[in-house]
Design a protein that fits this description.
The structure is a homodimer of 313-residue chains. In chain A, helix 5 runs antiparallel to helix 7. The first copy, chain A, contains 16 helices and two strands. Chain A is an all-alpha fold and 313 residues long. Chain A has a single domain, classed as Farnesyl Diphosphate Synthase (Orthogonal Bundle). Helices cover 70% and strands 1% of the residues of chain A. At the A-B interface, helix 3, helix 5, helix 7, helix 8 and helix 9 of A face helix 3, helix 5, helix 7, helix 8 and helix 9 of B.
């Protein structure tokens, strides 16, 4: 979803999904605003930098997945806000750390200087560390916002696992070790399943858990969400790789072609551009098939899958 | 508690507190062993480095505070193991990140090369990130280990706050900004209350929460624990500053005199060595006074306060 879409969607005549996106985008933004300490709170340099890292940019894909999955199961709005903040804060922290000189050494993110360029390396590291902690603080709030304590404890375990050494951080470690290697398709998928897929999947599952799908009665729907999340997670990465080749810095808000330049293995380098595009299309279909059991309640999830595959940035 | 103490305490004739220390030290070690993925688990470089960062060293002060506070309230052993792991993993992650070149640039920790020296900067950053996530995964386990889901959600919020921007990470940010400044005693205390005090306090409180002190019936005891933790947290830092001046690298397992060399404000630089020693003594007394309401159940907490003030490393 790009800014033009959101702006158009604010008009009353906007079609339902664009309106839904605009409303939930604003909701995620307000929830993040609330959960982040004010820039004036001591220590203010850290809090200012945390807000810079999180607010005023970002496609908020993960919060949208939380909302769409949660609403498909009838979850309470307050609990979904907590989970939406949590996944976005984990995502934001990972970007700040990825951009550091010892990692990708990026100077531009969302069209602005990266956190370490603006605030220095040491503070950028602390920004990431503090945002991860804040993610769990936000998530813990779901216990008193309608998700219940039992589901909240499960969600904390789920998010921690997705962010940790067998999930996102593990994917980064594999990525580090893969520069200059020609990964087989299977190894590439394993890396991305961890690096980006795990948090996207957790976003969908957290929505389901907020809606009480942890028990036996919800098991079939949680399984449907899982299959959906698996397909969408991979599709997201395939499209990222395509955009890295096709996009330009102005649209992406970051330097294009960097993966290729760094000799990082991508779906495009592994499959070629044409086959990568076909794969993205097939994964979109798989996402739609997965949510058939949810019926009309899964509509937003289907629309989000379309958006993720068709996005231009 | 140093290694000699633990070794002596393993003998049957050891006095009760040393025996308690040895038993709980082993218990914390076993629990950390279990919660850390095996070094053979993919991605193995990351898991090997995480185990290197956590196992085989460290005084385990924070787990001991969890156990002592929890046992004072009759908490379940399994829940305390979860909380003990969680606070130690947060502590371990903070050391890995603090040692990085962009922070303190330390090459020696617990008498061994620091994680970034051994495994490289990028992996060291991921080790810290993954250990923080693992801390919350471990803590979430308390829900099914006798602490209950309600207390677990509270513990997650408590640990996240202690680790985050108004706690430990915030203290680090203040520390960064304070190099070369002569901080007033009040500003110095504020920094340390966040940087080391917040996690020590959370350790004590998590023990209490495992023992069901969240409700009205436990409020007075939780308040006693709080006052104890406040005194012990500051005492810990005052003694650290004294040891930085008096100690040598062989005993400390890290480079002595580094704070003074870096022109960092310390209790010794603010008060002088003699007054800093007297302050540590007074804080020890305050810790003992705070736990009077706990009676005999608070005995281990009192003994830990003595140990923290009298330690040589």
């Amino acid at each position: 979803m790009d800014d033009t879409l959101i702006a158009t969607a604010s008009a009353a005549a906007a079609p339902p999904f664009e309106r839904w996106l605009a409303l939930h985008g604003e909701r995620a933004e307000r929830a993040l605003e609330r959960v982040l300490p004010a820039a004036s709170t001591h220590p203010s340099a850290l809090h200012e930098a945390m807000r810079y890292a999180v607010l005023g940019g970002g496609k908020r894909v993960r919060p949208m997945l939380v909302y769409a999955a949660g609403e498909a199961g009838g979850a309470q709005a307050g609990a979904l806000d907590c989970a939406a903040c949590a996944v976005e804060l984990v995502h934001a922290y990972s970007l700040v750390h990825d951009d550091l000189p010892c990692m990708d050494d990026d100077v531009l993110r969302r069209g602005r200087p990266t956190v370490h360029v603006r605030y220095g390396e040491a503070l950028a590291m602390l920004v990431g560390d503090a945002l991860q902690a804040l993610a769990f603080e936000a998530l813990a709030g779901a216990a008193v916002q309608g998700a219940g304590s039992g589901a909240t404890a499960l969600m904390v375990a789920e998010l921690a696992r997705a962010a940790g050494s067998v999930g996102m951080a593990g994917g980064q470690a594999i990525d580090l070790a893969s520069v200059g290697l020609a990964l087989e398709r299977e190894a590439l998928e394993d890396m991305h399943r961890r690096k980006t897929g795990a948090l996207l999947r957790a976003s969908v599952r957290l929505g389901g858990l907020c809606a009480g799908m942890a028990g036996d009665a919800g098991a079939a729907r949680l399984h449907a969400l899982d299959r959906y999340a698996e397909a969408v997670g991979l599709a997201f990465q395939v499209v990222d790789d395509i955009l890295d080749v096709e996009g330009d810095a102005a649209t992406l808000g970051k330097t294009a072609g960097k993966d290729a330049e760094r000799n990082k293995p991508t779906y495009v380098s592994a499959l070629g551009l044409h086959a990568a595009r076909r794969l993205a299309g097939r994964l979109r279909e798989q996402a739609h098939e997965a949510i058939v059991p949810l019926g009309e309640a899964g509509r937003r999830l289907g629309e989000l899958a379309d958006l993720i595959v068709r996005r231009k940035s």
